[in-house]
From TrEMBL:
This is Methyltransferase. The keyword Transferase applies. Residues 43-293 form the DNA methylase N-4/N-6 domain. Pfam families: N6_N4_Mtase. GO terms for molecular function: DNA binding; N-methyltransferase activity.
Amino acid sequence: MSKKASVAEQGTIFSSPAYVFGQAKLYNADCLDWLAEQPENSIHGCVTDPPYGLVEYTAHEQRKLRSRKGGVWRIPPSYDGHKRAPLPRFTTLTSADLDHLQKFFQEWGEALKRVLVPGAHVMVAANPLVSHLVSVALYRAGLERRGEVVRLVQTMRGGDRPKNAHEEFPDVSVMPRSQWEPWLLFRKLPEGTIADNLRKWKTGGLRRVSGEQPFGDVIRSAPTNRRERAIAAHPSLKPQEFLRQAVRAILPLGEGVVLDPFAGSGSTLAAAHAVGYESIGVELDPAYIEIARQAVPKLAEISPTARKPINGRGKPNPGEAFQGPRD
C-alpha cells in the first residue's frame, strides 16, 4: 500500500492483529501506515531496535542475508570456534543513504509523537556510526532528548586490521572494537509538572529498579545467547536479560501500552509479557511475523540470569536488582 494513501482511504485495515499472545498484539504492516491509523495519545512508551541502516531490511537484502550471499550484510566466518552473527556494513552507506536515514527517522518521529501520550518515553537502539543522525532527526520531530542508555556489551564489530594489509600494519585497528551500544532516550513533552503528568497520563518518568536504586543509564549485558538465537532467528536479536530491564523502565507506574514499531521476531513483546505489560508490535516482513508466532511464547518463558545494575561508582549495586521474569 502506498504511504501517500489517506487514512480515510485506508479505512481500518489494521484493526485485526496478525498474532496475539496474552497482552501482546503483533500487526503485519508498515509502521508509518499503522501509526497514521492510530488515535492520538494512545501509546505510553516505546522500546525499539529499528533498521537504522534502512537498506539492510529491504526485501532484496533480506533475501541475500537468508541465502548467506552477503550484500550489505557482512557474513563473517567462525572465530575461535564461535559462529559470528551477520552484521550490516554501516561504513558502506553513501551520503544519499545517510540523508534518507535522517529524513525517515524525522518522519517516523513525527508520526510516533502524535500517538504518544504526554510524558511518554521512547528508547531507540542505535549504532555509534549513525546515532547522531537519528538523534537529530528525533529532536527535529519534536521529541525531547533525555540522554542515552548504554548497553555495555562487547561484540565482534570493529577491531580489524586494514583489509588485505593486516600483515603490513599488524598494530593498526581500522575502528575501535565495539564494547557498547547506544540506546537513544527521548520523551514527548509532559503536561504541567511531572507529578501532574503521572496522575493524568501515568507517564513522565522511568520506573525505578527498587526503592533504593533508580533506573541507570548503563546496563551490563552480554551478546544474545545461542538458546535465544535458536528460538528467534533474527540478525539483530537483543537478549531478554537486557530488554526486560529496558521495557520495565519505560512505564514508570507499570501501567499503559508499550509499542515496538520495528518488532522483528517479537523479542520486545516477549519482554513486555515477562514483566506483565500490555504491548503492541508492528512488523513489515511476513517472514518475521511467522518467526514471532513461535518465538514470543518461548522467549517470554526464559529466565535469564540478571546482572546487577551499575551504581554511580561503577560497582555492582548492593540493593535490589531486577531479577525475575515477572514483577
